[in-house]
Amino acid sequence: MPERIDCAVIGAGVVGLAIARELALAGREVIVLEAESTIGSGVSSRNSEVIHAGIYYPAGSLKASLCVQGRQLMYEFCARNSVEHRRIGKLIVASSREEIPTLAKYEEQARVNGVDDLRRLSIEQVEELEPEVRCAAALLSPSSGIVDSHGLMLAYQAELEAHGGMLVFNSPVTGGRLQQGEIAIEVGGEAPMLLHAATVINCAGLGAQSVSQAISGVPAPTIPRQFLAKGYYFSLAGRSPFRRLVYPVANSAGLGTHVTLGLDGFARFGPDVQWIESIDYGFDEARKAEFARAIRLYYPQLDDSRLRPAYTGVRPKISNAGQPAADFCIRGPSEHGNCPYVALYGIESPGLTASLAIARYVVSLLQIIPSR
Asked: Which domains does the chain have, with CATH numbers?
């Protein structure tokens, strides 16, 4: 006999855990099905750990609204739950005079998005704040910060479990079907099982499209094509010359080869963009020279012998090289024949920052009123 459950969340990354927590707070019984043996082993463990302010994203987009809302929720949650974080601020730098108009566009976009604390800096002000940075002009974003992403996920997990939720590891979803009143999902692993769930949330990250394709009844037109963008990170050996995040003007595929600081104070650079056909976390040290060229645009004193290979990540994009960056794609019951199935695609940056706001948005799609 198949087992009947209330809510199944597929994927125990930062967004899946945030959604599962929110459902549990709303009084739902929640099981998180994770294909791997631990939480956050995919996209969530291979990012910059930055809390974004919400500057870049188009007005009215989910990325804009959920990032701005999520950033405030994130700072409040971290303070309340003793998750290590730091509001260190970010410089967005124009490396040449030709890029200065882009900073003005960022200022306007930020105001539209509800980010009202950006400050334009002169070259002299930049030198005072970050003596090693060279640029033609810059913006300061005081609301940007960094967070211990693993500590954050553990805190989400703790609240989920405190409200009766549970995680089941080594449990990949291999199939299923949408049907009237409930959703059947087939779970593989060492102990295969068939579950009948009242509600299913697909937060499988890089595997989200594959999961939806394996579930009979999910309309094919609702599943966007996935593109993979690999990003490399190099760390900087020794003492960091920076006290803040430093971002160049963004490019079409992401926010450029920027400086982030770990909570340990050490600096790392990345990610760059390499379009790939399949998931690959291998590290090609030959990219070091290209990194050094990009970094010297704003940090000309770089000693590239201090660059050390760190890690790589793969971003689950739903727009291809040369196309404008796509918004988050969150398909709810209305796209699935009013079946209580929600699928999240293309949840890349600022997904970590927006995770709590994404969770509230998903719960609203399911017309569940959280009890707080």
From this structure: 3-46+150-224+326-365 (3.50.50.60), 90-142+226-317 (3.30.9.10)
